[in-house]
Specification:
Largest sheet: 7 strands, mixed
Radius of gyration: 22 Å
EC number: 2.7.1.5
Pfam family, one: FGGY_N
Keywords: ATP-binding, Disulfide bond, Kinase, Nucleotide-binding, Rhamnose metabolism, Transferase
Organism: Microlunatus antarcticus
InterPro entries: ATPase_NBD, Carb_kinase_FGGY, FGGY_C, FGGY_N, Rhamnulokinase
Helix content: 25-40%
Bound molecules: adenosine-5'-diphosphate, 6-deoxy-beta-L-fructofuranose
């Protein structure tokens, strides 16, 4: 099979990268050509993303990519979900996008949405976990804001980057599934839901499916980056978690994933959504996956709790080196205090260690004194949440989980992976770090014809090439019965 080269633009809440994916004879090799920091920035009383700045970094990355890989044929874009930019009728961005950690989605805003459509009614349509920053709530806040009369389109962030690269305005469907406005079964925007929320049904541009070509690079972009004419942007799982799940190197039938970065996305890949009251009560989400799959998962608090703590310590001039703190945390005894990492109090930026200590105090637990003790508390709490979530996922779906794949930046955290194995009682397979870029490239390569087959077939092929680290449970938390592999 022919060699093809693809570019993955993958931007997470904490960092972005442009990665070249070289696909040759069914093997995928990734080369990161550019990396850049990301983080929400305070702008008066709003918290925003500097999307224009991120796009400038994308262009730097594409320029480097073209220098190193002149035979690149396509580009795919993924970012974190739910956030969007607002365009006027001329396609101009009205403001840098508000970040999902902004405090505008107050309980009153959520209540106003639920007055129009109850939480239960929303769930049977959109299948989403209740999170205050889901797009539908952000839009409700936006409807009260000054820009709203000038808005023609809301455009999800990867789609906005795709628009700036090609001039084509679309809404990629996996990310559309995180807006709260998409039907989890039909994968369309139901007109009646939009009407009940007083939103135009065509607020989001027309849908596009992962694997479909979006368009050729605009001449100005080709000129600025030096990329050859004819390079196209191809829609991928533009929700980063959708691409991460494609990139999970699963070869076992009964696998679960933890996509571990700013958030931990913990769950299963299913053929169809689970929209039962039990699933809603357990706060499970049914996000859209590539190839019409369902990502049945929960957003569990993530390494945000750690990175935001590090930021606080660094600002205070205290030691804030991740690896050193992880070593110290690993030397502390197990069974210390734990917090509910899903508590909304941890969503906003700010003094994270103080909030963690307060949560321990409020729960009548020992208060972690040192920074290392705070780190240990976060990691033990995350591992406990993974275990709880996977047990719930088994109950809600009737499937079993025999192995847990941890992918993303957090797969490098050996202490977290070991604690996850111990808490879940199942082996953890860690890696790849760049599962999202891998999944992004895999979808493009299938469009180009250099990879073929189902997700399972593609995963099996890419898994052969990867060195995964295995962590076996060392406590007695392992299930006492041998379970049948799920289908
Ligand atoms: P996102 O896509 O949400 O920005 P990433 O998948 O890039 O997140 O993961 C970022 C996280 O990975 C960091 O917050 C950090 O906790 C973790 N991480 C990064 N490098 C290392 C490392 N060398 N060892 C342990 N953890 C790491
Ligand atoms: C992870 C992620 C997650 C969303 C959150 C906003 O990067 O996309 O899946 O819930 O960011």
């Amino acid at each position: 099979r022919a060699r093809t080269v693809h570019a993955a633009i993958d931007i997470g809440a904490s960092s972005g990268r442009v990665v070249a994916g070289v696909v040759d004879d069914g093997r995928v090799e990734l080369h990161t050509v550019h990396r850049f920091a990301n983080g929400a920035v305070r702008d008066g009383d709003r918290l925003r993303w500097d999307l224009s700045g991120l796009f400038a970094e994308v262009l730097v990355g594409l320029t480097r990519l073209g220098e190193a890989f002149a035979d690149v044929t396509s580009i795919g874009v993924d970012t974190w979900a739910v956030d969007y930019g607002l365009l006027d009728t001329d396609g101009r961005l009205l403001a840098e996008p508000t970040a999902y950690r902004d405090d505008r989605t107050t309980p009153a805003v959520l209540a106003a949405v639920h007055e129009r459509v109850s939480a239960a009614d929303l769930y049977v349509v959109n299948g989403l976990q209740s999170l205050p920053f889901t797009t539908v709530y952000q839009l409700a806040a936006e409807q009260r804001g000054p820009l709203w009369p000038r808005v023609r389109h809301a455009v999800l962030l990867p789609d906005l980057i795709g628009y700036w690269l090609t001039g084509e305005l679309r809404t990629e469907v996996t990310n559309a599934s995180t807006t709260g406005l998409l039907d989890a079964r039909t994968r369309t925007f139901p007109a009646d839901l939009a009407a009940r929320l007083d939103l135009p049904v065509d607020l989001f541009p027309p849908l596009v499916q992962p694997g479909e070509p979006l368009g050729a690079l605009l001449p100005a972009v080709a000129a600025e980056t030096g990329l050859p004419p004819g390079v196209t942007v191809v829609a991928v799982g533009s929700h980063d978690t959708a691409s991460a799940v494609v990139g999970v190197p699963a070869t076992e039938p009964a696998w679960a994933y933890v996509s571990s970065g700013t958030w931990s996305l913990v769950g299963l890949e299913l053929d169809a959504p689970v929209l039962t009251p039990e699933s809603r009560t357990a706060n499970f989400t049914n996000e859209g996956g590539v190839d019409g799959r369902t990502r049945f998962l929960r957003n569990v608090g993530g390494l945000w709790l750690l990175s935001e703590s590090l930021r606080d310590w660094a600002e205070r001039g205290e030691p804030a080196e991740l690896e050193a703190l992880l070593d110290q945390a690993a030397a502390l005894p197990a069974g210390g205090p734990t917090i509910d990492v899903d508590d909304d109090t941890f969503i906003a930026p700010g003094d994270m260690p103080a909030r963690i200590r307060e949560a321990c105090r409020a729960a009548g637990q020992e208060v972690p004194a040192s920074s290392a003790a705070v780190v240990r508390c976060v990691l033990e709490s995350l591992a406990a949440a993974y275990a709880r979530t996977l047990d719930q996922a088994e109950r809600l779906t009737g499937r079993t989980v025999e192995v847990v794949h941890v992918v993303g930046g957090g797969s490098q955290n050996a202490l977290l992976c070991q604690l996850a194995a111990d808490a879940t009682g199942r082996p953890v397979l860690a890696g790849p770090v760049e599962a999202t870029a891998l999944g992004n490239v895999m979808v493009q390569a299938r469009t180009a014809g250099s990879l073929t087959g189902t997700l399972e077939e593609m995963r099996a092929r890419t898994a052969e090439q990867l060195d995964l680290r295995r962590y076996d449970p060392v406590t007695d938390a392992a299930p006492s019965t041998t379970k049948e592999a799920g289908s």
